[in-house]
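Cast an eye over my tokenised protein here and flag anything odd:

===
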Amino acid sequence: MRRALVALTVTACLVAGGWLTSPTVSAQATAEPEEPPSQALLDSLARVMASPDGFVDAFDAQVWLLDMQSRLARRQPAGYPTRASRLALLERIHGEAQRAQLPPELVLAVIDVESRFEPEAVSSAGAQGLMQVMPFWKEEIGRPQDDLRDPQVNLRYGCTILAHYLKREHGDWTRALARYNGSLGRTRYPERVMAAWFTRWWTER
């Protein structure tokens, strides 16, 4: 019951914020077998990784950056101990989220859950960096030289992959996040990300 209430509350906030056109977050998901990456995703990732860096309009992002910097400071990220380092990271996150047409606050929530903002983090499964990207992606798109511990590289991979899954799932955040985590059919990971988004990173738009 508690999980269902959390999911419904977050859904209502997402609808109000304009990030969902219909309430697609659910407390249950249909179990489906995992499958290899689609060619569409591989093509998209290869194209984005080969493109020039984007940029963020500093004037438009100023309020957001200052707000999120104070929130990030409260998380005490070991990899970003100074205000300047946190602002630089947030500018990268904002830019990559905009490139992928994702809410930057969602990307912050994913990073919060995945690595707690530790760029050198490595999971027991071998996932690396801020958004815990698996190294096999580099081989799949023919870029073995990419360093997933580089925040810019990691963010571009992670945002591109998540955006693809969101499009594939027609805006259903629960299923898209579960695909990103490799846990389609289970809701624990999407619920954790949504809770982090709603309680720590949510902003009114």
